[in-house]
Specification:
Number of strands: 0
Distance between the termini: 51 Å
């Protein structure tokens, strides 16, 4: 297989890992953050637990997950679970901060106008918190792209295959073949999500 074909194949595989992990993390963290925003005690526990997960070295977390039934083992499934766990904190924390950052006077005015809790969330809190929430998604996405290179260590594939192969053979070209596309992907994601963040921010 030509090198460029393998680079393209592993780039798509890497992108797939990141996309699945981010989709799951967003689906879990944003609703959880909305629910925790008005529950101070639960918020402290949830953010504390997510923060502890962030302190675990990425390679160690991948290793810890391998022997766990149902979600462990060698391959992409374990890699996705680990990436989701790493992506949760920035999205969860920013969602909570965004909802809590809505001006109390604005919230009280909406309630005085007769808005229900659901209407308040959809029409006031989420639009005003959108920029903060999207910033968390952007941070999590860029971080996940980098962390996904470790997935190759447990058979998860992606651009880390080149990096680990290059380290094992002391081949800088192999390392660059994995590192450069990952860096470009991270910069592109940061730029696109930053544009979306600005685009959907309230005036």
């Amino acid at each position: 297989m030509p090198v460029w074909t393998e680079v393209l194949s592993l780039t798509w595989e890497h992108l797939g890992l990141v996309a699945i992990a981010m989709a799951v993390a967003i689906a879990v963290a944003i609703p959880a953050g909305i629910g925790l925003a008005h529950r101070a005690r639960a918020e402290r526990w949830a953010l504390g637990f997510a923060g502890i997960l962030q302190t675990v070295p990425s390679l160690a977390l991948f290793g810890f997950l391998i022997p766990i039934p149902m979600i462990g083992g060698i391959g992409k499934r374990t890699a996705v679970v680990a990436l989701v766990l790493y992506a949760l904190l920035p999205i969860l924390r920013n969602t909570v901060a965004g909802i809590q950052g809505v001006d109390r006077a604005v919230r009280e005015s909406a309630i005085a106008m007769g808005m229900t809790a659901g209407q308040l969330l959809r029409q006031v809190e989420l639009p005003l918190a959108a920029r903060t929430i999207l910033a968390g998604v952007r941070i999590a996405t860029v971080t996940t792209i980098g962390t996904a290179t470790i997935a190759a260590a447990i058979g998860g594939g992606g651009l880390g295959v080149f990096i680990f192969r290059g380290v094992a053979s002391v081949d800088s070209q192999q390392i660059l073949a994995g590192a450069v596309p990952a860096a470009v992907m991270a910069l592109a994601a940061d730029g696109v999500l930053g544009w979306i963040e600005r685009k959907f921010s309230p005036a």
